[in-house]
Amino acid sequence: MAFPSAPSALWSVSLLTALFAAAVHSNIVYDDDPLQPVTSDETVSVGGTVTLTCRVAESDNSSLQWSNTAQQTLYFGEKRALRDNRIQLHRSTATELSITIAEVLLSDEGEYTCSIFTMPVRTARATVTVLGVPGKPQISGFESAVPEGGKVTLTCTSTGSKPPAKLRWFRGNQELEGRPNVVESVPDDPTYNVSSELTLEVSRSDDKALITCAVDHPSLAPGDKRSEQALRVLYSPDVEIVPESDLPREGEKFHLKCLGNGNPEPTSYSWQKKDGELPPLAKVDGAFLHFEMLNKSDNGVYLCHADNVIGSSQAEYTLLVQEEAADNIADPTAMSTSSGVDHAVIGGVVAVIVFILLCLLIVLGRYLIRHKGTYLTHEAKGSDDAPDADTAIINAEGGHSGAEDKKEYFI
Q1: 375: pLDDT strictly greater than 70
Q2: pTM of the entire structure?
Q3: CA distances in angstroms from 203 to 182, 209, 240, 394, listed in the order given
Q4: Which of 111, 132, 137, 262 is a Cys-bridge partner for 191, taking CB atoms 3.0 to 4.6 Å apart?
Q5: CB 100 within 8 A of CB 90
Q6: Neighbour tally for 257: CB within 10 Å
Q7: How many C-beta atoms surround the C-beta of residue 194 within 10 A?
Q8: 226 and 175 in contact (C-beta within 8 Å)?
Q9: Residues 298 and 279: beta-carbon distance below 8 Å
Q10: Distance (Å, whole) CA 146 – CA 204
Q11: 74 and 67 in contact (C-beta within 8 Å)?
């Protein structure tokens, strides 16, 4: 079929629209028809771009046409019929006509028609579904801190979704059970407002915990839109006493520190000794208890009380003062060093004694050798004139005349 040239474009469009309307109302269905157009339904989010494609299996040189929901012609072959810069030609061949619609609006939703102007006219429909993108959720209902054991109700709201969004609650990675979502339609608008409530009974472990409201919607990837609310819980202090060292020694300075973790922070601290009064040399300085010089009388159980506007808590610490002599016992390095020194001293003394004994043996040996030589010499001196050995000895000691004198004396 031939159509008028460009100067008669308006007349042509009107004629095509009339023919199209007649074909639509004729309800003619063609099975296995190579000239029957084929389309597909599309889903797009507000602000996105959708592509509409129409194809036929064979061509008889007839032109394909796309029309919008109001049956206004958008494109006839490669020719634009509606002045809307959002709508552009994507591809045009003898067997295909594809167009794109950018910056999609909610009003663009509906049924679009592809037609081929044969005799009779053949048509196919494509439904475009436009998703209303929900807004970022807003959490309300938590304006001030809540005392431990109290309840808090949070409300999460998201607007502009189509279809209605689903709201989900989380504490960290743990999903919480909220009340069923409340869906409200927006007057003169196809979108919906959705809200959800979550009620919690809080404990001190909930302080600074992040409660998250996340939007679940087909137009969004998981986690795309969420809001967080940090809980603030008021509770009495958790108290702990920390010593300056684990081995308090007699005669040294020492202190205990009272740590109070509460919300709000503790405003006052107090110290006392269980079953008695604080030692005279112990001084209280807020969260600290100072000992100027430790002694055995300081042993005992000490109590620290921490207070804030919510309440008071206490902790205990048992002080055991170590004796000064216990240092060496407690220090294996010192014992090892002392033992090494003792062994060295003992080894040195033994070496000196052995040396002295060797010297004495040498001197004694030399003395004995000399004494033996003198005896032989004296005996030799008296043997020159002596008839026998006895006489030789006597001669050697005193001479012959001496011997005679002694003999005469005894007679």
Answers
A1: no
A2: 0.63
A3: 28, 11, 20, 124
A4: 132
A5: yes
A6: 16
A7: 23
A8: no
A9: yes
A10: 10
A11: yes
C-alpha–C-alpha distance, residues 95 and 143, integer Å: 64
**pLDDT confidence band for 207 (50 / 70 / 90):** very high
Residue 70 has pLDDT above 80, yes or no: yes
Note whether 335 and 328 are within 8 A (CB). yes
Distance separating alpha carbons of residues 87 and 103, to the nearest angstrom: 9
Place of tokens 């040195």: 348
Class of residue 187 by CB neighbours under 10 A (exposed 0-12, middle 13-18, buried 19+):
exposed
Residue 107: phi and psi, rounded to 5, are -70, -10
Q: Do 50 and 86 meet the contact criterion of CB atoms below 8 Å apart?
A: no
The half-sphere exposure of 54 on its side-chain side, counting CA atoms within 13 A, is 29
pLDDT bin (cut points 50, 70, 90) of residue 24 is: very low
Residue 124's contacts (CB-CB under 8 Å, 6 or more residues apart) are 36, 37, 38, 39, 54, 113, 114
Beta strands in 105-248 (DSSP E): 110-116, 122-131, 138-140, 146-147, 151-161, 166-171, 174-176, 182-185, 192-201, 210-216, 226-230, 233-243
Examine the pLDDT at 80 and tell me if it is beyond 90: yes
Mean pLDDT of 383-408: 49
Question: What is the residue type of 228?
Answer: E
List Cβ neighbours of 377 (8 Å cut-off, separation of 6 or more): none
